[in-house]
Amino acid sequence: METIRSDVAAWESYGFSAESGERKSARELLVQHLGRCADRAGLSQGLRALTDYVSASNYLLVRHDVSSEAGMEAVVASDWPFDMVRTIAGAIVAGQSRMSELDKCLNLLKPCFAHLSDEIAVPSGVSREYCTIAFHVGRVRMSLVLLFPEHFILSQSKLRDVGVMTGYFASVCCRGAILRQDREMDLTEREIECLYWIAEGKTSDEIAVILGISRNTINNYITSVMRKTATKTRSEAIAWAVRNSLV
Questions:
Q1: Is the dihedral of CA 229, 233, 238, 242 positive or negative?
Q2: Which of 2, 8, 152, 173 has the highest count of CB atoms within 10 angstroms of its CB?
Q3: Hey, do 8-181 and 187-243 end up sharing a CATH topology, with the first three levels equal?
Q4: Residue 3 above 50 pLDDT?
Q5: Mean pLDDT (the chain, rounded)
Q6: From the candidate CATH numbers 3.30.450.30, 3.30.1490.190, 1.20.1080.10, 3.30.365.10, the one assigned to the domain spanning 8-181
């Protein structure tokens, strides 16, 4: 009963009346609220509602299209204590960058749990375990990272709901930035040609002969492809190309 009362109080704080003739589920109310927040100025408000929906205490939204050393540059929005964000943001981005393309696909929208190191100070009553849910906005991979109260039993179905809804919500709120990033990530015809021949198992020397340009130019194209696709090896670049139906 206390949980029900707290849910009602939380949703009334977002402007929904518990006395309305039509009773709606917490999920339906959340979707309505996100619709009201669907602009850049409402990003934090919407993320706060998503966090409350799953009974988490704090949220951190990061993007993975930056280098693993970028740290705070990867942070889109957060209400974590600043020192925690500064310490862990780079580690979260680096952890995602080390994953293979297959693992990234398998972990999409799947709640994954990890523990903060003992050196990181956490607020009183907050668990050291945190949950990461990855999703895509356009071609940009993002993650919602949630902190929870200690000893809280999590709802897996609500976590999956939050992952899907955060993806849709972020695609609206961050539309301008994501579209600019998509344009920056667009591959040239030559870069796609190089990707195709790499997927066919050709070396840089062989591709140079096929395309009639120098080996160094081929390597420059391949380096540009990996930069734009945030991949580290040719195999990862091929996997990215397959996932995006380019080869």
A1: negative
A2: 173
A3: no
A4: no
A5: 80
A6: 3.30.450.30
Percent share of the chain, pLDDT over 90:
26
Return the percentage of the chain with pLDDT > 70, whole number: 81
Residue 182: both structure tokens together = 């998509």
As its CATH architecture, domain 187-243 has: Orthogonal Bundle (1.10)
Q: Which own/partner pairs from 64-69 qualify as long-range (CB within 8 Å, at least 24 positions apart)?
A: 64/93, 64/96, 64/97, 64/134, 64/140, 64/141, 64/142, 64/143, 64/230, 65/139, 65/140, 65/141, 65/181, 65/185, 65/230, 66/93, 66/230, 67/93, 68/93, 68/94, 68/97, 69/94
**Per-residue three-class SS string for the chain:** CHHHHHHHHHHHHCCCCCCCCCCCCHHHHHHHHHHHCCCHHHHHHHHHHHHHHCCCCEEEEEECCCCCCCHHHHEEEECCCHHHHHHHHHHHHHHHHCCCHHHHHHCECCCEEEECCCCCCCCCCEEEEEEEEEEEECCEEEEEEEEEECCCCCCHHHHHHHHHHHHHHHHHHCHHHHHHHHHHHCCCHHHHHHHHHHHCCCCHHHHHHHHCCCHHHHHHHHHHHHHHHCCCCHHHHHHHHHHCCCC
pLDDT in tens, 180-221: 555 446 788 888 889 889 988 999 999 999 889 999 999 999
Q: Residue type at 21? A: G
